[in-house]
Design goal:
With 198 residues, the protein is α+β, with helices and mostly antiparallel strands. Helix content is 19%, strand content 43%. The termini are far apart. The model has no long low-confidence stretch (mean pLDDT 93).
Length: 198
Amino acid sequence: MKTRTLDIPLKGVRDYIQGPDLFNMAIQTVSQDLGVLPEDFEIAFHRMAHLQVELVWDTDTAPEGAFAGGSWMCDGQRARYWMRELDAPLTMREPYPEEEIVAEMAFDDDFNEARLPAFPPYSTMELWVSMIKAMHQRRFADAEGKWVFARAKLCAYDPNHAPGELRVELAAKLGTKLTRNSVYLNETKIGDVFFALM
């Protein structure tokens, strides 16, 4: 079993760690360990994290208290990882101008699609999630609750790729509280991001 404490700041006024930051740190840590980018990288969240987080991998046993988990393909086999909170507070915070990012987005008439040019220094996953959130807030304006990033399945994702045009598309509404959204970089589909209404 391997573990690493993830050094992740809070963003903006949030009192929880953003899902995209957890996703990016997980794939970066696994990539460093493997020496290559993992394929078919997945993550699923069961709840939000308000404390420092530890990544656990190279084991088939989920640690007690895991709030998120996922997997990737390696040599034809699916490998697993989990995240759990530590008994230590988060001490760092960074600004996150979400309103400025949303202002640069272009939506179709039915709010089923959004586009955004590259917006450094923010990561592609961070921007995709902001785009889907903004799209859902408009598309499902009458929904009671909050739309949150719940899961991602990406066939090929490099957190350090060159900036490019981003697009998200509402691919399916799964019941009343879950959606599947296709995400694109320079018109190449990278995978799907799921949102849940909480």
